[in-house]
Amino acid sequence: MGRKAVVTGVGQYVPPGVLTNKDLEKMVDTSDEWIVTRTGIRERHILGKNLPTSYMGVRAAQMILNEKNIDPLEIDMIVVATVTPDMMFPNTASRIQEKLGAKNAWGMDVNGACTGFIYALATGAMFVESGRYKKVLVIGADKMSSIVDYTDRNNCVLFGDAAAAVLLEPGEERDYGVVDFILKTDGTGGKYLYMPGGGSLHPPSHETVDKKMHFIHQEGRTVFKFAVTEMANVSEEILQKNGLSGTDIKYFIPHQANLRIIDATGKRLGLSDDQVVVNIDRYGNTTAATIPLGLYELYSQNKLQRGDYVLMAAFGAGFTWGSLLLRWAI
Ligand code: COA
After folding, report:
1. Which of 128, 160, 163, 279 is the most exposed place for a label (fewest CB within 10 A)?
2. Dist CA 258 CA 254 (whole Å)
């Protein structure tokens, strides 16, 4: 066998609307200085009010199909990581499948919150490695502005909207492509970061709206502590498991939730600043999109060479967390 899932294309869609820290100063009691020093975020992009998450996912995927001149009919499977689906059902993958014209593909959504893209990439990779499918689109897309309370300064400064995607295809070399991943969940952390309303536990009602249950709720300081510890642990674990150390990694793409979490994780792994991909200053936390956005940046700037190791790690609601080791193969 030895078949591996190889990333052969990367695309992104970042909506044109920009919400700066100065804009937020006019909306809640905050300051540019507080936001920059506590989070590292300077601005985030916001999708138009009437446009859904799939709008961004379609465009990120389309960028790959256009660049590689691939007919949408060739796509076998679409995996969408999101916590802001267009609707409860049908899944967002189906909506993207329709708009892409990918008539031969089936699709599903993966809800792993901020770890969603790593969960989805691992899932897509398994379908390619098994020999079942030849072209799998993995999309991370979130319209966080649709679940953010813009009167809550604790949360509204943190999040932004975007989508990014990768194409997975089979590669025949054993050590190239998605080399390994470690995925974790600890449901006892669920109470620290969640959106209570809208599901079967608290179906929408006047009460759920009045109590602001359709917005993100989180205990930021607790999430911060877990994220710092576990993102580094799961990154060290995957390096050790594969006989690698920080110096073997060309780029580390951490989930972008807070610059202080990113810096602390990079430091614990012994990485230098130029190994760590940071774009939180421009996009904020785009949940399932942060990691593929980082990969797109490397890809579009021709920074990736065949044989380079790319390490990804994320932490999010659930709690969910994980790491994925990719060896660039094209
Ligand atoms: N502007 C100004 N002050 C703010 C503020 C804002 N936007 N948001 C919070 N504050 C205030 C708080 O009210 C608090 O004031 P108090 O001490 O008078 O109560 C003070 O700043 C410190 O709050 P605290 O929560 O301790 O700050 P922090 O240093 O932990 O930073 C987060 C807050 C949310 C930025 C940080 O905890 C974080 O990033 N957590 C992880 C979030 C995350 O990753 N979530 C997504 C899942 S991956």
Report:
1. 279
2. 10
pLDDT in tens, 145-173: 999 999 999 999 999 999 999 999 999 88
pLDDT in tens, 235-249: 999 999 999 999 999
Instruction: Decide if pLDDT at 1 tops 70.
Output: no
pLDDT (0 to 100) of residue 151 = 98
- Whether the Cβ atoms of residue 11 and residue 158 lie closer than 8 Å to each other: no
Which among 20, 36, 217, 224 is the best mutation to test ligand 1's pocket, defined by most ligand atoms within 8 Å of the CB? 224
Pairing outcome for strands 217-218 and 193-194? antiparallel
Q: Work out the burial of residue 242: count CB atoms within 10 Å of its CB; fewer than 13 is exposed, 13-18 middle, 19 or more buried.
A: middle
Q: Are residues 194 and 159 in the same domain?
A: no
Statement: residue 2 has pLDDT above 80: no
Q: Which of 174, 196, 217 is the last residue of a domain?
A: 174
pTM comes to 0.97
In one-letter notation, the amino acid at residue 257 is A
User: Active site includes 285?
Assistant: yes
Domain boundary, last residue among 140, 174, 208: 174
The CATH number of residue 150's host domain is 3.40.47.10
Same domain, yes or no, for 124 and 221? no
CA of 159 to the centre of ligand 1 (A): 13
Domain of residue 9 covers: 4-174
Q: Are residues 269 and 297 in the same domain?
A: yes
Q: Which atom of ligand 1 is nearest to the CA of 257?
A: 44
pLDDT attached to residue 158:
98
Q: 250 and 128 in one domain?
A: no
Comparing C-alpha atoms, which of 228, 223, 143 is closest to residue 190?
223
Digit-coded pLDDT (tens) for 177-205? 999 999 999 999 999 999 999 999 999 99
Question: How many CA atoms does the CB half-sphere of 139 hold within 13 Å?
Answer: 41
Same domain, 8 and 116: yes
| Span 295-304, average pLDDT | 98
For residues 112 and 240, membership in a common domain is answered with: no
17 and 152 in one domain? yes
